[in-house]
Amino acid sequence: MARLRPVARTIVKRTTFKKPIADYLAGTIKWSDPSLKPLKDLIRKVLKAEQDEICPYCQRLIVPERRNVSEHIEHYLDKSRAAYRKFAFTATNLVLSCQGCNVEKGTRDLVVKGKANPVHFSQAAAPFRWPHPYFDSMSDCVLKRKGPVYSVIQGSGREAEAQQMIVDLKLDTIRNSESRHGRLVAERERLYAEAKKLIKQTSGESRARLTLVVERLEAIDNELG
């Protein structure tokens, strides 16, 4: 993924969002407050287009999941930390991430240990513990091969940061820990193929197996929504 453009900047500067942003930064409302929903919806929309629906960390398609109908607005410097709350609506602090990367990242502090917290969130504050989606080209730092298998790209100038991100997000083990969504989709495909074969059979055993297959398919379809 190439360096992202801070496309959310023009949205957060709109007059109509001045009050809810000020209220959030002052701590009088929470991130989940309904007054912030129109703003967050627009941020998701522009980031989705800018990122081409790709997570900047694992560089994979962001797959909507049943309990995550909207992509995660991810804060590179986590908004739950008091020092970074002021960056909650800073364009260069906002990306969309997949659920897996969002969960693994959690509230992790990406400012280098011992380094002063940034006063302004700009490239001058770099480097951080990971490559930064707006200040670095993620695809120049981390190579994703089929599998997917991830490795550091030498010569990027962010080798240590790229390795740290791979380790922290467990990208080096992702091929052995595919998302539940992916596993369910794969299982559904296998069961559909089996059902097609069983339909052509007439034995009591095949009919009994077909009943179980259909029940499992219904359960998977319900979970995938």
Compact summary:
By secondary structure, the chain is mainly α. 40% of the residues lie in helices and 7% in strands.
Q: Could you please describe the fold and organization of this structure?
A:
The chain has eight helices and four strands. The chain is globular. The strands form two sheets. It has a two-stranded antiparallel ribbon with strand order 1-2. A hairpin with a 3-residue loop joins strand 3 and strand 4. It has 225 residues and is mainly alpha-helical. It has helices at residues 9-12, 18-26, 37-50, 99-105, 138-141, 159-168, 180-199, 204-224, and strands at 72-75, 94-97, 142-145, 149-152. The longest helix is centred in the C-terminal third of the chain and has 21 residues, at 204-224.
How does the major sheet shape up? Answer: 2 strands, antiparallel
Q: What does the oligomeric state look like here?
A: single chain
Strand order of the largest sheet: 1-2
**Structural class of the helices, strands and pairings?**
mainly alpha
Q: Please report the distance between the alpha carbons of the first and last residues.
A: 30 Å
The H-and-E topology, N to C, reads as HHHEEHHEEHHH
Percent strand: 5-15%
Shape: globular
Q: Radius of gyration over alpha carbons? A: 22 Å
Low-confidence stretches: none
- Count the beta strands: 4
DSSP summary: helix tally: 8
Give me some keywords for this one:
single chain, 225 residues, mainly alpha, two-stranded antiparallel ribbon, two-stranded antiparallel sheet, 8 helices, globular
Secondary structure elements and pairings:
Layout lengths: L8 H4 L5 H9 L10 H14 L21 E4 L18 E4 L1 H7 L32 H4 E4 L3 E4 L6 H10 L11 H20 L4 H21 L1
Antiparallel strand pairs: 1-2, 3-4
Helix pairs in contact: 7-8
